[in-house]
Amino acid sequence: MKSAFLRLAGALCAAAVYCCAAAQQPPVDVQLAGQPAAGPRADAAMPQLQNIYGRSHVSLNGRWNYIIDPYEMGYYDYRHTPFDASESGKGGFYDDRKPRDKGDWVEYNFDLSPTMKIPGDWNSQAEKLQLYEGTIWLRQSFEADPKPGKHYVLYFGAVNYEAHVYLNGKKLGAHKGGFTPFQFDVTGKLAKGHNFVVVKADNTRHQDEIPTVNTDWWNYGGITRDVLLAELPATYIADYKVQLAKGNLKRIEGYVQLAGAQPSQAVTVSIPEAGIKTTVHTDASGRAALSIPVAKMAYWTPEHPKLYQVELAGGGDQVQDRIGFRTIETRGQDILLNGKSIFLRGIALHDENPLIPGRLRGEGDMRMMLQWARELNCNYVRLAHYPHSEEMLRLADEMGILVWAEVPVYWTISWNNPDTFKNANAQLTDLMVRDKNRASVIVWSIGNETPVSAPRNVFMGKLAATAHALDDTRLVAAALEVHRVGNEVEVADPLADQLDLASFNEYAGWYWASNKEMLNYHFNIKYNKPVVITEFGADALAGYHADADTRWSEEYQDALYKNQFKMLAAIPGLRGMTPWILVDFRSPRRQHPYFQDFWNRKGLISDDGKKKQAFFTLKRYYDEMQKKYQ
Ligand code: GCU
Q1: What is the pLDDT of residue 90?
Q2: Domain extent listing, the chain
Q3: Distance from the alpha carbon of residue 79 to the mean position of ligand 1, in angstroms
Q4: Is residue 359 lining ligand 1, measured as CB closer than 6 Å?
Q5: Is the CB of 600 under 6 A from ligand 1?
Q6: CATH code for 235-326?
Q7: What is the Å distance from ligand 1's center to 216 Cα?
Q8: CB pairs under 8 A, 24+ apart, for 462-469?
Q9: CA of 449 to the centre of ligand 1 (A)
Q10: Pairing mode, strands 6-7 and 135-144
Q11: What are the two backbone dihedrals, phi and then psi, of residue 390, each rounded to the nearest 5 degrees?
Q12: For residue 222, what pLDDT band results from cuts at 50, 70 and 90?
């Protein structure tokens, strides 16, 4: 039950927040396990709150005013000194200043500026912004009347790429990373009555960032996921992990972490439908380990994705979650789900709606994408190449679809730059902290097609170490590159020694040779690990028909899929695949004026929702694989 506590100016929703200006108890600054001390965060960012949607919150989504600012006039003065670092602190667009009198000089005005829908990338909301890369300022106004003794958290689901956030003209902090959530503790910073939040969003690409300048997806900028304001009691449940222990169907292990005024409390964890109710006592730092025997439980599987109501209560706070319980591990060349060998019947997808241009917006279009995967008879998806939204993972939990989750450590990263590593490590950590209770997530992927070199091996090796240290209950992998010598395809990437899967991309028949020659390829895989093909595919313009040797035709793509199945059948350890890709997607790298027009056409479904011939070929193959693994 959400306590309504906020009234939005001129918009829907909720009752008022009640507070007095009395000093709020500053929250105990709790450094949660696995959250790096440093990282590309700002000063005021706080550790990620687990399950924000399960807290008392209101949404600040809606129409935000925006100002396009390609020269960052709202951030730097004419000497290129940041306004928010200057003594006056005045002058930036973040103070939403109105002219004091007719002689006053102000060269911007949010009230008179256009609006855009938030959450929503800006590229798909205005013609002139389709290819825009730079800064846009966004402002939302709202009324509040915060209560004494409560904590208030301003949460952003994602802002691509760099965000500077201000509340009522005061800087809260900054964040880098276009696909992971971040939040600020705004306790004591909300005004009684009128408030406004301003975000400087900048999607400019840079070599030393994560991702770097070179990607094969559209650089959608802006506030692309929810903006929420949450209210928490004086002492609150900040984080928890409630999952089956590694390889143990009879024990739940994890932790609960409290923060706030009195973090040392008795906390009860209940799973009523499983007959579980246990009480633990958090220590002075607010933390308590969980180790709970499991008598009888319906384990989560794609066929029966059972989710349990899990309730945590302590210190005057309570939070509920829906959690599935399963184990995932490898044994030799097998992948075991709840101890049973499975085949990952997958497909890859981007976080993009082909029918309504832009990032996926909410449950509706996410369900459409996963429903298309279901129609392929998939039990698995690769959410490429970056963290998708929390809603997408909760939907995968509900629909019974296993997930490969990934961070955008993609291609030619600045391997020697320590700040680049910190950024990658923070994005990986934030992804894992957010989704650690999602049964659907079975793989943490630390990157895609990163060219082998000594500095890359060190960088990626440290990322693999982070992933293993943070979560020993899931697999750690990457989409590796292979080494071709003639028809010999060698999978011998040294990074694989630290990974659980021999997973790699291969483009036999498209980038390598053609349909005619691809059956000559032989895979030489140096690892006794399950083999998962993370990408193969071909472009096809839906409706373009020709013979099977004519590239860009549906027939070529279809013949390639059939050849792939024949070629891959020769790999004894093959245990899954995610062909590239479910749906055509936008990319600035795809210039062919007739076949592409800024679209990558490897989708099995076109940009207007039509299924190509290869869609049905893959479906038939998965029907056979399902029978084989029954
Ligand atoms: C690469 C890459 C994808 C890209 C694909 C393609 O393997 O991982 O992001 O879209 O190839 O070229 O279509």
Answers
A1: 78
A2: 4-232, 235-326, 348-628
A3: 42
A4: no
A5: yes
A6: 2.60.40.10
A7: 6
A8: 462/421, 462/425, 463/407, 463/409, 463/421, 463/424, 463/425, 463/428, 464/495, 464/498, 464/499, 465/498, 466/425, 466/428, 466/429, 467/428, 467/432, 468/498, 469/34
A9: 9
A10: antiparallel
A11: -60, -35
A12: very high
**Residue 438 beta carbon below 6 angstroms from any ligand 1 atom:** no
Task: Quote the pLDDT of residue 15.
Answer: 37
Contact between residue 482 and residue 504 where contact means Cβ atoms under 8 Å apart: yes
Average pLDDT over residues 216-242: 98
Which protein residue's CA is at the shortest distance from atom 3 of ligand 1? 216
pLDDT over 80 (residue 5): no
Q: Which atom of ligand 1 is nearest to the CA of 385?
A: 9
Most informative mutation of 580, 585, 599 for ligand 1 (most atoms within 8 A of CB): 580
Mean per-residue pLDDT over the chain, rounded: 92
Q: State whether the beta carbon of 578 lies less than 6 angstroms from ligand 1.
A: no
Assign domain 4-232 to a CATH class.
Answer: mainly beta
- Calpha distance 277→421 (Å, rounded): 41
4-232 and 235-326 agree in CATH topology: no
Measured from the CB, is residue 445 less than 6 Å from ligand 1? no
* Ligand 1 pocket check for 239: Cβ under 6 Å: no
Rounded to the nearest 10 degrees, the angle between the axes of helix 363-375 and helix 390-399 is 40
Which whole number is the average pLDDT over 241-267?
97
Give per-residue pLDDT as tens, 95-106.
888 888 888 888
Ligand 1 centroid to residue 37 C-alpha, Å: 34
Distance CA 393, CA 615 (A): 24
Superfamily holding 348-628: Glycosidases (3.20.20.80)
Task: Return the ligand 1 atom nearest residue 479 CA.
Answer: 8
Query: Which pLDDT tens digit goes with each residue over 275-303?
Result: 999 999 999 999 999 999 999 999 999 99
Question: According to the model, what pLDDT value does residue 28 have?
Answer: 32
Tell which atom from ligand 1 comes closest to the C-alpha of 602.
13
Query: E strand or H helix at 230, and its extent?
Result: strand 227-232
Give the pLDDT confidence of 526-542 residue by residue, as tens digits. 899 999 999 999 999 99
Give the pLDDT of residue 86: 73
What secondary structure letter does DSSP report for 611? B
Which ligand 1 atom is nearest residue 537's CA?
Answer: 13
pLDDT at residue 100, rounded to an integer: 83
Lookup: tokens for 503: 């997973």
**Which residue's CA is minimally distant from atom 10 of ligand 1?**
216
Tokens representing 464? Answer: 């693999």
